[in-house]
């Protein structure tokens, strides 16, 4: 994580935890940096005018008013539940770590009390608190390819037990019948196919940007329903 990203993340974490303080030790563990790094980050935020307050004592730490830089979005309770449920479901996906930070932003935008805020806190604690990278190398690489918009080369195990070598342009991450599937343009089949990370036997991130396929992609999307990449 870049320093600028960490500074924003510290503010989000403090706001989400408000009005309780957070210790330097906990923040250092959260962002996997040293105590000194967190202390420098807090000093930079204070110098920039962020209203961070120190609370002394054994149970003390740093805190920030929840109202600071509140985002303009306002959620109804039903919308909040929908977001919380969806983010919690991402715990096993390649975007688990991003779901953690997104959930904290939802928590920070909610009132400090109420059923929706309580649900967000429960989801953060039990579903996403320990969520890390996906449990397979393929899922992690596919997630990175989606984020960066780059082509991957994979060895994929089909339903018939045959392994095929193909270049894929990842397009989206889907949840299909309880499994994570990456939908992408398969250059071997010249069409969109669905790829399960657990069936990838080898993967390489090429760094090649995904090209704009224009009408060909739009036409295939218009008629596409999920298919396992078995052909």
UniProtKB/TrEMBL annotation:
Q: Which domain of life is it from?
A: Bacteria
Q: What is the lineage of its organism?
A: Bacteria, Bacillati, Actinomycetota, Actinomycetes, Nakamurellales
PROSITE patterns linked = WYL
Q: What is the scientific name of the source organism?
A: Nakamurella aerolata
The residue ranges of the Helix-turn-helix type domain are 6-62
Q: Which Pfam families match?
A: HTH_11 (PF08279), WYL (PF13280)
What SUPFAM superfamilies does this protein's entry cite? Answer: Winged helix' DNA-binding domain (SSF46785)
Q: Can you say what this protein is called? A: YafY family transcriptional regulator
Q: Name all WYL domain ranges.
A: 139-204
